[in-house]
Each structure stands twice: as C-alpha cells, then as structure tokens.
Amino acid sequence: MNLNSKIKIDSTVFAQEVDNEMVLFNASSEHYFGLDEVGTTIWNYIEQSRDLKVVLNSILDKYDADKSILERDLKIFIKKLENSGLVEVIE
Predict the structure, then answer these.
(1) CB 56 within 8 A of CB 42
(2) What does the domain layout of the chain look like in residue ranges?
(3) 6-90 to CATH, choices 3.40.50.410, 3.40.190.10, 3.10.450.540, 3.90.930.60
(4) What's the average model confidence in pLDDT over 69-84?
(5) 1-53 pLDDT per residue, tens
(6) Model's pTM, two decimal places?
(7) Alpha carbon of residue 3 to chain centroid
(8) Which of 48, 52, 74, 86 has the smallest set of CB atoms within 10 Å of its CB?
(9) DSSP string of 3-66, one letter each residue
(10) CA-to-CA dists, residue 43 to 1, 71, 80, angstroms
C-alpha cells in the first residue's frame, strides 16, 4: 500500500455514526465493528475521497501530529479494515 492507493468500501458494508463513534456492519460476514472518534474521522474521510493521499492530508489538517507517524498509523488502520473485509486497497 502506498499513498497513491485508492480505497474501495465493500458494497455490503453499512455505516452509522452514533455519539461521535462509527458502527460498521458487514452484511456478508454479519459482523459489527466499532470505531472510536479518530477511526470515525478517518472513515468519514475515506467515504468522501477514497484516495489515500487525500485522506492523509485531511487527517494532517485536523490533527497536529508528525506526518510520518500519521502515515504509518493510517496504513495500519486501513490494513485492519481490509483484513476485516470492510475495504479493498487498490494499488
């Protein structure tokens, strides 16, 4: 995965925000997933752009953190979403 990757949300995933947290439901696996406030922010950026570079820049604009750390953490988060069948990373 690199910053030019695109993120595709699986068509069987439904998202609902509740009290600044996101609940995701994968209809294929029938599993629920919960995201904290930061995860919810990232998910919302993914829904808006689907472009990893844009998502990273949006996060950098929102949070005061080191770019390399945010990039690493974003890639880890995306990988977890991918491993859970919620998204697909397109190189």
Answers:
(1) no
(2) 6-90
(3) 3.90.930.60
(4) 94
(5) 898 999 999 999 999 998 889 999 999 999 999 999 999 999 999 999 999 99
(6) 0.91
(7) 14
(8) 48
(9) TT-EEEE-TTEEEEEETTEEEEEETTTTEEEEE-HHHHHHHHHHHHH-BHHHHHHHHHHHS---
(10) 17, 15, 12
